[in-house]
Amino acid sequence: MNKNIVFLTGFSGTGKTSVGRLAAELLGWMFVDMDEEISLESGHDISQIFANLGECAFRDLEHKKLLETVSGNNLIISTGGGILTNDKNQNVMSESGITICLEASIDTIVSRLKQDSSSEIRPMLNDDLSAESVLKLKSDRQSLYSQANWTIHTDQLSPKAAANEIVRAIHLINESDETEIFGIAPKELSSVVDTKNGKYPIWVSQGNLGELGSRLKKIVNPSIGYVITDQGANRYAREIQRSMESIGIKSHCFTMEPGEEHKNLSTVELIYKWLAERKAERSNVIVAVGGGVVGDLAGYVAATYLRGMPVVHVPTTLLAMMDSSIGGKTGVDLMQGKNLVGSFHQPKFVLVDTNTLGTLPKRILNEGWAEGLKHGLALDKSLLESFEKNASDLKKLDLDATTKLIKHSISIKAQKVTEDEFEKLGKRILLNYGHTIGHAIESITNYSSYLHGEAVSIGMMAAGHISVEKNLLSNDDLIRQEDLLKTFNLPVRFKNLNIDNIKARILSDKKRAQGKVHWVLLKDIGSATTSSDVTDSEITQALKNVSSI
């Protein structure tokens, strides 16, 4: 059962269409009116279909449209009043989503139908809107309506209030299933992210890659999984495919070229074509296996193909594990800047197997530490102290110490995403410490000179210098930051770059508002703040401080 597909059932006049549209808007989901879709495709209104072809022909069209519609995800579907009279429809609906019945008294229904008689289509009533006629037809169907997962009485509710009740019901029904979902491998459960569309788990362990298939089956239950990976993580993608196939989920794999320079719309178009050729459906799932580039790009594909497919993240790099796989940010780069095209699209779950870190090249491993250090510097002093205390074990990739620290870092990211999912409240933006200048450095070098974590490391040093200049941060803390970045072999200065070019690219930053860039600065270790009052001279001096020219 897909908890993100909701069928609205009930008699005519209970508000399925008007209320359903409002509920879909509240959730950010797509709304589908079954009768409207059938009418548009056939070129005839429902009463004409009944008159010319008969009820049996209409029910066949209705069943066909239902099968097409349930291939989607994040849907509110308004059904016709008699859809449940077909046993086949009952089976499809019970297996594909949750059903919410809108109820109303006979007097309310009759009153609403008469007020809206010019537009409402009710062939089964033969235009007889008497209480007796409505009662007879409704009574014949009442046992079918009563099978719904939830019932909302709309007599005393405005359409907006009824829509809010639908949203509340969806969350309550989803929460009732959380015990089962989050009861899976509780020792591995690192964090739970709470979003507008529900909660999702993040599992972290050594050697859990083979569990992907069974967890995918329990949470998403797709018939087909489309794995997107790159050449560096291909071996793990194959293991994921074997896990899926062993549980009865068919799989296909797309292997993209590695590197940030391939995180662009050209690669997205190749994957769109690949999915279209294989007739991917909304009820299928995309599984991102790899680092941050793969996760960002695969997430964007999932957010946009067929107007949205479920996605699962299997990060295989430190950077992706601690940061990019969590929170639903997806995106691709343009020549003008990083991640300028993107969308928020939360995963169904994140599965972290720290054993995958053992095959990473040293430079790729090192850049990942930058995101964890960023979490400590900006938001959690105790995490930074863990880095300092366990630096030797972490650098040797002791998996016990590394797994523990990754869980700590993930918990910080998960909390900020829960508090500020769409980065509108000024909380989640604190996770972008070092990213303003870091993204600019990546962009002007065409993503070829510095890895993301390396550029962020330099960006954090520049932001640290600005923080000191504004008397927010002590010079001793800035030195502490620099020493720790160096300990993990991260660069703290750039080479052979033009400062004016960096400043020009900063103006393309996504966090710009009303012409100003919102900088993330430190007022203490573990305590970040934002400021749009950073002068040109302060930026210039900070860049000079981190330039090795």
Low-confidence stretches: none
Q: What's the number of structural domains?
A: 3
CATH topology of the largest domain: Rossmann fold
* Cα separation of the termini: 60 Å
Helix content: 40-55%
Strand fraction: 15-25%
CATH top-level class of the largest domain: Alpha Beta
Number of strands: 18
Q: How would a crystallographer describe the biggest sheet?
A: 5 strands, parallel
Per CATH, the architecture of the largest domain is 3-Layer(aba) Sandwich
Described by the principal axes of the CA atoms, the overall outline is elongated
* Category from helices, strands and their pairing: alpha/beta
What does this structure look like?
The chain has 549 residues and is an alpha/beta fold. The chain folds into three domains: 172 residues, Rossmann fold, CATH 3.40.50; 173 residues, Rossmann fold (3-Layer(aba) Sandwich); 118 residues, Dehydroquinate synthase-like - alpha domain (Dehydroquinate synthase-like, alpha domain), CATH 1.20.1090. Helix content is 49%, strand content 17%. The protein is built from 23 helices and 18 strands. The strands form six sheets. It has a five-stranded parallel sheet. A four-stranded parallel sheet has the order 9-8-10-11, with helices on both faces. A three-stranded mixed sheet has the order 6-7-14, sandwiched between helices. A hairpin with a 2-residue loop joins strand 6 and strand 7. Helix 2 packs across helix 4. The longest helix is centred in the last third of the chain and has 21 residues. It is elongated. The model has no long low-confidence stretch (mean pLDDT 90).
